[in-house]
Amino acid sequence: MNFDKELDARGLNCPLPILRTKKSLADMKSGQILKILATDPGSVKDFQAFSKQTGNELLNSTEVNGEFHFWLKKK
What we know:
4-stranded mixed β-sheet, 35% strand, single chain, 4 strands, 2 helices, alpha+beta
């Protein structure tokens, strides 16, 4: 999946992946896609909740060998 910016949040625990995501999204334009890499298993639920609360669309999420990838579209 194409994306405009990538955020490496691997090795960070809650709430840091979400906080770094907020900061990254602030520098982006509406409609752009941010790809996030994370290793915190709690980030799956965190990003689902973040998407609902902020209106940024969670386009996809995958797990590969304990690494989680999320694609968020900025509202």
